Amino acid sequence: MERKEGEETIIAENGKIEATPQKDGSICGFDSLHHLLQASLSPQLFQEVSRILLGLNCGKKVEPIALPQPVKSLSSEHDFDLQAFSFSADRESLRGPRIVRVGLIQNSISLPTTAPFLDQRRAIFKKLTPIIDAAGSSGVNVLCLQEAWTMPFAFCTREKKWCEFAEPIDGESTQFLQEFARKYNMVIISPILERDVYHGETLWNTAVIIGNHGNIIGKHRKNHIPRVGDFNESTYYMEGNTGHPVFDTAYGKIAVNICYGRHHPLNWLAFGLNGAEIVFNPSATVGELSEPMWPIEARNAAIANSYFVGSINRVGTEVFPNPFTSGDGKPQHADFGHFYGSSHFSAPDSSCTPSLSRHKDGLLISDMDLNLCRQLKEKWGFRMTARYEVYADLLARYVKHDFKPQVISDPLLYKNA
């Protein structure tokens, strides 16, 4: 394996190279853990490891999809990772397949955070144009962008100047994407920093749902706001007020669980109870904070709620002009760490795709037969065997000030005391 100049090599006791993130965001020079394992193991071992790590879809591995050559050329010309896979479902007698092609885009910012804000936004538009074109030319029906895709992820700096990136629901970024929606007959999910001009210019972390005719179907505002490490985003926006909406589109029922909401199982549950078939999780999270959790939470949600999940994380290290600190004992710093990409799809049968690159822009495409959602509900019976009335009773009591946990102590536990 060729190693790039400046890369660190960590040698384990057995003499093998250990997987460790490098300064460029790769893992020992590999784009992803999947590629590292593929290069390091024999084909037979790799196949078995992949079965365990990625699961099986209807008894077989998730199959790659061949994409048109012009799309591959766009990937090469503009240097973004391009991967495509297919989830199947069992064939039914009374329903035909309900196959939808879905896409996720992850990207780094295009200009330094010190550049004029208008230039930064326009540069992101320019950067994403060929990637969106690649999605549309591939026949993607539903496309989701990353959290706050129009700007650097500045919400932890606590500087108010970044509020200038906020825009109304029908603002410049929506108008930009509406053209692609109409051109490619594609539903687009656009997570932005929203400026609510009807309510005192309140700011929200919002996903705008653009229909395949270029119309605005609706919006969802982020339900859970982090207060962990540098991610203390309540300087800019608070918990959303839109509930858990599911949007019935031309290509299925979709929902958006924005970033930190993925850590809350009841948040995932609520979208499922409202009938979601695909839930998108546009995020911005760094390696030191959350990477071991990243492959697990969305996959668990897909299994527990019998829907597909599309997980998106931005890439790169964003350096800000003024150092900041978060009161956690760490010295002041000018960045949050590396946004590790690794966007992927999870299916209700526990299978998932390999991840996109840990350090490059990327487009991940998946064909998914939505019939799999109902088939897994019927197989496992989670909806029928759940005890919602018991949970509802506990939650109703828990939110009251005089709640007492249901704890039964051993009467002999404190006898000697």
Determine and state the CATH class of the largest domain: Alpha Beta
Q: What is the CA-CA span between the terminal residues?
A: 65 Å
Could you list the spans in which at least 5 consecutive residues all have pLDDT below 50?
Answer: 1-15
The Cα radius of gyration reads 22 Å
- Main β-sheet, spatial strand arrangement: 1-2-17-3-4-5-6-7
Structural class, please? alpha/beta
Number of domains: 2
Provide the CATH architecture of the largest domain. Answer: 4-Layer Sandwich
| Share of residues in strands | 15-25%
Order of helices and strands: HHEHEEHEHEEEEEEEHEHHEEEEEHHH
**Major sheet description:** 8 strands, mixed
- CATH homology-level superfamily of the largest domain: Carbon-nitrogen hydrolase
Tally of strands:
17
Shape: globular
In DSSP terms, counting alpha (H) and pi (I) runs of 4 or more, how many helices? 11
The helix content is 25-40%
Mean pLDDT: 93
CATH topology of the largest domain, anyone?
Nitrilase/N-carbamoyl-D-aminoacid amidohydrolase
EC number: 3.5.1.6
Pathway: Amino-acid biosynthesis; beta-alanine biosynthesis
Catalytic activity: 3-(carbamoylamino)propanoate + H2O + 2 H(+) = beta-alanine + NH4(+) + CO2; 3-(carbamoylamino)-2-methylpropanoate + H2O + 2 H(+) = (R)-3-amino-2-methylpropanoate + NH4(+) + CO2
Pfam families: CN_hydrolase
Notes on the structure:
This protein has helices at about 35-40, 45-55, 70-80, 115-135, 170-185, 265-275, 285-290, 295-305, 370-380, 380-385, 390-400; strands at about 65, 80-85, 100-105, 140-145, 185-195, 200-210, 215-220, 225-230, 230, 245-250, 250-255, 280-285, 310-315, 315, 340, 345, 360-370. The chain has about 425 residues and is α/β, with parallel strands linked by helices. The protein folds into two domains: about 25-55, no CATH class; about 60-385, Carbon-nitrogen hydrolase (Nitrilase/N-carbamoyl-D-aminoacid amidohydrolase), CATH 3.60.110.10. The strands form four sheets. An eight-stranded mixed β-sheet has the order 1-2-17-3-4-5-6-7, with helices on both faces. The radius of gyration is 22 Å and the shape is globular. It starts with about 30 loop residues before the first helix and ends in a 19-residue tail after the last helix. Pathway: Amino-acid biosynthesis; beta-alanine biosynthesis.
